[in-house]
Structure formats: structure tokens, C-alpha cells
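User: Hi! I'm working on a homework problem where we have to compare a predicted structure to a textbook description. Could you give me the structure for the chain below?
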Amino acid sequence: ISVTGVQTCALPIFLKNGAGSLKLTNSAFVNNVASVSIGGAMRIVNAAPATVSGCTFALNFAATNGGSMLINNSNPLITNCISWGNSDDGGSDESAQIFGATVTVNYTNVQGGWSGAGVGNISTDPLFADSNGADDIVGTEDDDLRLISGSPSIDAADNGIVPVGVVTDLEGKPRFVDDLLATDTGVGTPPIVDMGAFEFQGSLLFVDASATGGANDGSSWSDAYVSLQDALLDASSNSIVNQVWVAAGRYTPDQGGGQQWIWEAHGTQLIGSTGPRQPGAGCWRGTVHGVRVST
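Assistant: Happy to help. Predicted C-alpha cells:
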């Protein structure tokens, strides 16, 4: 069985008694419930080899063991994954995320840690963008399991395990994206792949007071915002934005969408430049590297 792109609230996978092999990649299992049983999202029992890579298991539940997955008498390889927020009758510790003594887990973010075989694993909040969505209800279409800037799962997985031909993530976006703000903690030649089903794309917003003739939506130098304030407002409302690049020029708060500087940074870097379209060292106020910011 080869599975790619399982969507949220998918039916759990149940593989048993040698019923073929399983290759699972770029998939997300969210809010699945085994209300009277085990293995909320996936159960592998007496099965042939299974490989699970680049997947996210979140907020699944089992009434007894293995809120995310239960493995019995099988030897699957789980790598480049995130298993977080899953629970069973014992809570949300390691066994609620991955239950099974014969599992090898590599470069995976496991809530409660992983004490079994494997390397490169972490146990730190993956920083999902909004795991229960704007409606605050788990398992609905607005749930957002993408990673935000600062996630420890960014650039933290193993390039060598990504299946040949897999170059995009669950959303169809590029699978190998280098986050300039993240330290590479995974293995391989950069860019290092992320843990989980969604590759952090990062985002740059561009500001150039001299930009004309484009969309002026900040998406590129040719379509740059002409007002720094508009870019800062965009960055404040967009958790994916992690850098704002500002071309040389003079920018004042009465331009664009406000009369004063309004900025909720959430880790976003404001980067000035030494000349048009040449990003350089960071700045905020005064004249720094060709950018004059008036307050």
C-alpha cells in the first residue's frame, strides 16, 4: 500500500497479518478517534515492513493505547514526522504518540520524547500555525498544521529518507526550503527538509519606495510595497512572514495604512539594504545602511 496526502479526519489505517507493505508519506492524520479500541490514527499488527515519512499525526485519540499509532509485532520505520497532541487513557506522553517496542523512529518530533531505537529525535512544541483553526474546533477545514517561524521541526529532518521523486509537501509546495533564520539540525546537503507533512515556506516581503508599475503587494522586488507601513501591517497578520527586506530610501509612518508605526514582530526580521534591492544588515530607526526610517 502506498499512501500520499491523507487529509484531516481521514479514516485510520489498519494493517495486519502480513497484508502487504505500507509506504506512507506527506500525509496528515488529525482528530481520528478509536473510541473503544487502540491506535487512533494508525494500527500495524503482525504486518510486513512499513515506512512512514514526512507525516503529521496530531490530536488523535484512542480509548486505550496509542492515541496516534499502535505497533504490535511489526518493525516499521518512522522518520521525518511529527506526533504531537495525541492522547489515550494515559494522557499525552510518549506511549500516546507511538505505542510499540519494535519501532525505529528517526528525526521525528515526539511529544514526551522517544526512548526506543532511533536517532535525531526531539520533543519540543512544533509550533503549529493554528491547530484548531479560527473556529477553535479540532478537525475542521480551517485547522492549520503548518509550521511557523521558530519551529524546532524546521530544517531538522533527514534528506536521505525522502522518497525519490517527492519534491513537494502535502500542499504541493516545495519540499526542500531553507529557512534563513533556522539552524540546520537535520542531515543532508542544505536545504534540509522539515519534519512533518508541511514544509515551512517562510516568506519575504519586499519594500522599495521606487517600485512602480507592479502589483505593489510585497511579493517580489518588482512588485514591492512602496510603503514600509503596509509591509509591517502585512507581516503582523501573517505568521508565515519571517523577513521584510527594505531597499534604500526614506520611509515615514504617514505613508500607506497608518499614521504611526504598527508592528507585531512575532520573530520577523526587518532588514535594511546598502542600495536598491540589496538586503544587508538589520535596522529599525535612523539612517542605517541606506534606509532612513522616520519616527
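For your comparison, note the following. The radius of gyration is 22 Å. Helices lie at 94-97, 228-237. Good luck with the assignment!
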